[in-house]
Specification:
3 domains; mainly alpha; 19 helices
Length: 465
């Protein structure tokens, strides 16, 4: 085997030093291997949350608090828009998180687990139970104002953490069970989005609706004229809708969901079209190289080849999700955890009226209400013949899904930030989320190892044949 056969790029990039390039490759390889682990996003999120809790309870707690109050913004003449760093993370960067949620929802509705009633019935039933029962548990423990405002907190599921826990169970988790959890989490996200839009919205300002409406018109125009959206194109309507919702008094992160739902989920040229366009572009490129054409004449066939590759069989929704998911999983969500999971434990006193109710409502709603709701409503739906358990999914597996669905973390903390203006109530609610997340993760692992069977080697060989 020659050097060229074993390494398609045997030479160094122009201007690179051999030692520096080899060092960079050696550092990059283990990082890339870690990022390809399915549970990696949950691991990074867990580390960020741990750092936040330790930092907020260390002798340097004042620096943690001061960091998130750092003013950042833009000033042009007499106009200025300056907000704290905490705002830019929760209301700005989390818009990108909700954009990815919108992309996932669109794909599941059009092509995935929610594309037909037969496939969607069970996850819809499980998700509804997993939202309604936790909210009911919370409300029963906190019937009075202002404590009952947190009823939406235990409704949420953190998909990164939940999928990470299932991944740690290995081959015990069947593909059908994993798809069920993903579909449940998607429906859960839809429910959380509706709760935020309807119940956690401030006083409305009509001017903002005009701006958001203009942004929607721009977005609709892009879709109708056939613009195949990339991050750059999406930024225009996204900023307009975000600004309008912020002015209107609706949480601006919902702009991400709106834009995500508008992204096409169909490919353009298809596989056969890609091959035809690629052959033509490559032939054109070869002719120009043979004719010793200048470099700028080579741009056109290369652009045609890039267009064919981009629009072959991958839709804009899949392409955008693939591009943005690493940023969300390894930057935005850990930053959110770092900014919001730091609960100063020494400052929490349950002697104040209502605090123990908020903590109990959040923690019990997630840890007990989630699995109870998932199982109960799913059982009713199966009993009423509205749906059946998919092949590879048992009631024990559904119980494990219900347990890991009690990991609320990101979305639960996000809703808590909207629900409680009181620092004491917010701190207690966050503590309930953290405690229930830890309990649900441990319980999901232990119960999963106890009741989910490990597939036998013989069964695997048979299925391979």
């Amino acid at each position: 085997m020659t050097e060229t056969d074993s390494n398609p790029h045997p030479t160094l990039p122009p201007g690179a030093g051999r030692s520096a390039h080899q060092f960079a490759q050696a550092v990059r390889r283990p990082i890339e291997e870690f990022l390809h682990i399915e549970a990696a996003g949950g691991i990074v999120l867990l580390v960020a949350a741990t750092v936040a809790v330790v930092w907020a309870n260390s002798p340097f707690a004042h620096s943690w608090e001061a960091l998130w109050h750092t003013p950042i913004g833009l000033t042009l003449g007499s106009w200025s828009f300056v907000r704290e760093l905490h705002f830019w993370i929760n209301d700005g960067l989390m818009t990108v998180f909700f954009l990815v949620v919108g992309l996932e929802v669109k794909q599941e509705i059009v092509q995935g687990a929610l594309a037909s009633w037969q496939r969607a019935a069970l996850p819809i039933a499980a998700a509804l139970g997993g939202m309604l029962v936790p909210a009911l548990v919370y409300f029963l423990l906190n019937p009075g104002e202002p404590f009952r405002q947190g009823w939406g907190v235990p409704m949420a599921t953190d998909i990164a953490f939940a999928v990470g826990i299932l991944t740690l169970l290995g081959k015990r988790v069947s593909p059908s069970l994993r798809v069920l959890l993903l579909a449940l989490a998607i429906i859960d996200d839809i429910g959380a989005i509706l709760v935020i839009a309807v119940f956690y919205t401030a006083r409305l300002n009509p001017t903002g609706f005009l701006i958001a409406g203009f942004g929607l018109l721009v977005l609709y125009t892009f879709v109708r004229i056939g613009v195949r959206p990339g991050v750059g194109w999406l930024a225009i309507p996204l900023v307009l809708i975000w600004s309008g919702l912020h002015i209107a008094g609706i949480h601006p992160t919902l702009a991400g969901v709106i834009v995500g739902l508008a992204v096409p989920v169909e490919s353009w040229v298809g596989g056969a079209g890609f091959l035809a366009m690629a052959r033509k572009a490559v032939a054109d490129f070869q002719d120009r190289v043979a004719a010793q054409a200048p470099d700028h004449d080579l741009v056109e066939p290369l652009e045609e080849l890039a267009f064919a590759r981009r629009e072959a069989t991958i839709s804009p929704a899949v392409r955008l999700e693939h591009t943005m998911h690493p940023w969300v999983a390894y930057a935005i969500m850990p930053l959110f955890a770092l900014a919001n999971a730091g609960v100063p434990l020494g400052g929490i006193g349950f002697d104040q009226p209502g605090l123990i109710g908020v903590f109990s409502g959040v923690s019990l709603g997630l840890f007990l209400g989630k699995p109870l709701g998932v199982l109960l409503v799913s059982w009713l739906a199966v009993r009423l013949k509205l749906c059946t358990l998919p092949v590879g999914v048992s009631w024990g597996g559904l119980a494990v899904v219900g347990l890991v669905a009690g990991i609320g973390f990101t979305m639960a903390i996000f809703i808590a930030e909207l629900a409680f203006a009181s620092p004491e109530l917010l701190a207690v609610a966050k503590l309930g989320v953290l405690v229930s997340t830890a309990l649900a993760a441990v319980a999901g692992l232990l119960v999963g190892r106890a009741i989910l069977p490990m597939p036998s080697v013989t069964a695997g060989l048979t299925s391979d044949r």
